[in-house]
Amino acid sequence: MTAIQRNSDTTVLNNGVRMPWLGLGVWKTKEGDEVVHAVQHALEAGYRSIDTAAVYGNEAGVGQAIQASSIPRDQLFVTTKVWNADQGYDSTLRAFEESRRKLQLEVIDLYLIHWPGKDKYKETWKALEKLYKDGLVRAIGVSNFKVHHLEDLLQDSEIVPAVNQVEFHPLLIQQELRTFCKEHKIQLEAWSPLMQGNLDLPLLSELAGKYGKTPAQIILRWDLQHGVITIPKSIRESRIRENIDVFDFTLSDEDMARLDGLNQDHRFGPDPDHIDF
């Protein structure tokens, strides 16, 4: 069980780069004021990691909020992702430059392949390796890769992905994938940790009462104690502050196991093996 007691605690990725355990996700956050304010609220609340993606359409707003912040750049960790339509070597390099321009950043902290897609992720990975060697990204990784995708990628790659960002929550505990990633020093990161708001589970309510926390805070703490980075999404300041208030309690081993027992291998998002976009 991972001991994480402060928001300033970081995990060390396989290349030595430090990454915050908790960040703000901005999926479905509208470009413009909505995303700018969400990122500003998060930075004010103590978040130092922001996760966006080209397909979210809000990189410019994320960049605007970062530029307006007084927080030194080296204290922030910014992730973005290459979209499926841009996969391939040259097109990935072009997509990266577009993301960098919108974010107004010289260097991106973490660049991910958003989905494995059909047949181009090895070419895409070669582009990410170049960006890393050129010093334009501090770490490279993947998102939504299953074990077989990772095995395939590792056969021809020079660099092992630093991160694999996947759907992860008590109804989808991804045990096989977590074991594989741990063995290969690939840091797991959870998207949709709060199950897209489907929190009405009796056990979550019970544990929220026991620990004096909300069901969302119980799940986020469960993520952290499993050694999984988590990036809950919200645009409301009160919820953004609530989601980071998870460093002052610890779930017991028994309660961790009970939450694991909720697993149904249930996905709220697409199955990476069956995506058609």
Automatic annotation (TrEMBL):
Source organism per entry reads Paenibacillus elgii
Entry-linked Pfam families? Aldo_ket_red
Where would one find coiled-coil regions in this protein? none
What is this protein's record name? Glyoxal reductase
**Which residues of this UniProt protein bind substrate?**
H114
InterPro entries with a match to the protein in the record: AKR (IPR020471), AKR5G (IPR044500), Aldo/ket_reductase_CS (IPR018170), NAD(P)_OxRdtase_dom_sf (IPR036812), NADP_OxRdtase_dom (IPR023210)
| UniProt xrefs under PANTHER family | 2,5-DIKETO-D-GLUCONIC ACID REDUCTASE, NADP-DEPENDENT OXIDOREDUCTASE DOMAIN-CONTAINING PROTEIN
Q: Which residues form the active site?
A: Y56
Tell me where on the tree of life, at the top rank, the source sits.
Answer: Bacteria
Site-annotated residues for Lowers pKa of active site Tyr: K81
Give every NADP-dependent oxidoreductase domain span: 22-263
Q: Which family is this sequence assigned to?
A: Belongs to the aldo/keto reductase family.
Give the Gene3D superfamilies listed for this entry. NADP-dependent oxidoreductase domain (3.20.20.100)
> Molecular function (GO) terms listed?
oxidoreductase activity, acting on the CH-OH group of donors, NAD or NADP as acceptor
Report keywords, A-Z: NADP, Oxidoreductase
Question: Lineage of the source organism?
Answer: Bacteria, Bacillati, Bacillota, Bacilli, Bacillales
